[in-house]
Automatic annotation (TrEMBL):
Protein name per UniProt: Uncharacterized protein
Alphabetized InterPro entries for the sequence: ABC-Tungstate_binding (IPR052738)
Highest taxon of source: Eukaryota
PANTHER family, alphabetized: EXTRACELLULAR TUNGSTATE BINDING PROTEIN
Length: 241
């Protein structure tokens, strides 16, 4: 029988193509589609190599017609939203938290070929949150930045939808961003006693923690931070510290 030359649908995948499964599926489906009358004659199914992110992108660009993918989060995002995610991409604590969250679901949108839905916008936190509000994009922001922008221009924060806020009730909260107070190894000896005293004072309930737990930013009415956990009575809240 003459070899088929007519082009057919293009299928995108990575590992299953390398293992030969895509080819086996293509051959079996061609036979099936001819037998049931979907196709009149033999045709070709091309394999477009690419991982899950590539395959979804090829579907959008028209470079592939069918894709076999492996990440439900990426598939859901592709099906249900064309809204981009704005990242400060500045290696700040918030950006590190964002990167860890993406890595948890197997996504690295900042890779060498950045995902089109991942908007890298390396500016200061206030400007980044402002851009997310104006552009209608998703973003991850710290509470202080949100409250500052709210006090400066509430019309911007009013258009933002707060989907999830971190808290300190659960030590495993993915959006909890705990702070540590560190003492430098090269501290000047004349200042050592004061600095070490500060570390002792900052954890006292009637000392530094009283200041932290009552602090309100200028222009805001909301308390910004929560007090540190008591590692004696709440050891699970201090794990890893």
């Amino acid at each position: 029988m003459k070899e088929p030359t007519a082009p057919g649908p293009r299928s995108s995948n990575g590992g299953a193509g390398q293992s030969g499964l895509v080819g086996a599926l293509a051959k079996a489906y061609i036979d099936y589609s001819i037998a049931n009358g979907t196709a009149d004659s033999p045709y070709l199914i091309d394999w477009v190599t690419g991982d899950t992110t590539d395959s979804i992108r090829y579907l959008k660009s028209g470079d592939a017609d069918i894709a076999i993918t492996y990440n439900a989060a990426a598939e859901y995002q592709a099906l249900n939203s064309s809204t981009r995610f704005l990242s400060r991409f500045d290696r700040s604590a918030t950006n590190i938290k964002e990167s860890l969250l993406f890595a948890t679901i197997g996504q690295v949108p900042w890779a060498s070929y950045a995902s089109r839905w991942y908007h890298q916008y390396s500016v200061f936190p206030i400007q980044a949150l402002t851009a997310a509000a104006v552009l209608g994009e998703y973003t991850l922001s710290d509470r202080g930045t949100f409250l500052t922008l709210q006090s400066q221009d509430s019309s911007l924060t009013d258009v933002l939808t707060l989907y999830k806020a971190g808290g300190d009730e659960d030590p495993a909260d993915l959006l909890l961003n705990p702070a540590s107070v560190l003492l430098g190894a090269n501290i000047c000896e004349k200042d050592r006693a004061l600095a070490e005293g500060f570390l002792d004072w900052i954890v006292l309930p009637d000392g530094g923690q009283a200041v932290v737990s009552k602090y309100v930013q200028p222009g805001s009415t909301d308390i910004l931070y929560t007090a540190a956990p008591n590692c004696t009575t709440q050891p699970d809240h201090c794990a890893g510290w």
